[in-house]
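User: Please check token order:
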Amino acid sequence: MTEAHVEVYFERRAKPLTSVAKVACASEEYLAAMTGYRLAEIDADSILFDYEAALNENRWFAREYPFLSQDYWYFGASGQGDSWLIGPDALVYWYDHDLGEMEVENLRPLGLTFLQFLSMSWVVKSAEADTERDPTFFDVAEHRAAFEARLNAIRPGLSSLYPYRFFEGAS
């Protein structure tokens, strides 16, 4: 995934943002995407905040979790109430709201850059489309293996780290 791929999925801003001083995020990939494009929902589990929403969400995040907001940027959510964050290492973390209060030990590192996160989200979106067309799609072992292989092509072992399941027995 390159920044050029981002253009395929997100609307390019008529005028790119020139100042992101309020965005305390370590990821250059994220900053480039946010300044040049209007970020939006990719799939139900990858709802990205556009610039204005990200600022609002991170104001809330700073009030509720000041100890985390110093090092983590809250860039998206899932429709289930979970959170996507970028850490001080410029990598993506997942927070499961079922774990209770957001604390560092409850953030699950995925080892993905922002562009890899986007790739993962588009693989998932494609899998969701497959299951919408055919609810039994993942009953076929080859389809399950292909989905896992696509995730693992983004990052080795990603299929076992991806927090949501499409089928029983997912790695």
Remarks:
- The longest helix spans residues 114-133.
- Residues 71 and 88 are 5 Å apart (CA to CA).
